[in-house]
């Protein structure tokens, strides 16, 4: 199934929140997140996958969260939003908002930025751009499997996309929670696989 999705449909790589304020130990609000991402080699794995997508002529989308400096559109209606309001990080131009080294968008890449909310399809032009480009399949990477990744996967399925999850290109704040979410949620919604399997499938595109 993976080969048919990758080789027979227009496929986009989605890279969620690979930013210093999430994944770098000196800047992250949740300190366990950078540790897990580093243990799993997430940054390097995504770099390799993004290079393979570009080489195959398939689009790469970066999906950062960059808050307004006044946090005017962030509502204190959840613990995560309350913590963001307290932390006041990842604002436009701040160190926390910067992309992880090696994952800065290339000129041929696309960036869909949100300033609030939990997942990248809400309040952005992501769905519109994917549809205009004829994308049918999305490969989901980045962080975190606690919130953002399941949100993107569920939204993508509801919007009618085929979903592939590059499991070794994702991480959560706790390895047991990550494994549970992958096993009990993500595998029911998409194809869970590895970067190497996806790269091998990309190499078969005509």
TrEMBL record:
Residues 11-194 form the Isochorismatase-like domain. InterPro entries: Isochorismatase-like_dom, Isochorismatase-like_hydrls, Isochorismatase-like_sf. Keywords: Hydrolase. GO terms for molecular function: hydrolase activity. It comes from the Bacteria. SUPFAM superfamilies: Isochorismatase-like hydrolases. Pfam families: Isochorismatase. This is Nicotinamidase-related amidase. It comes from Sphingobium wenxiniae (strain DSM 21828 / CGMCC 1.7748 / JZ-1).
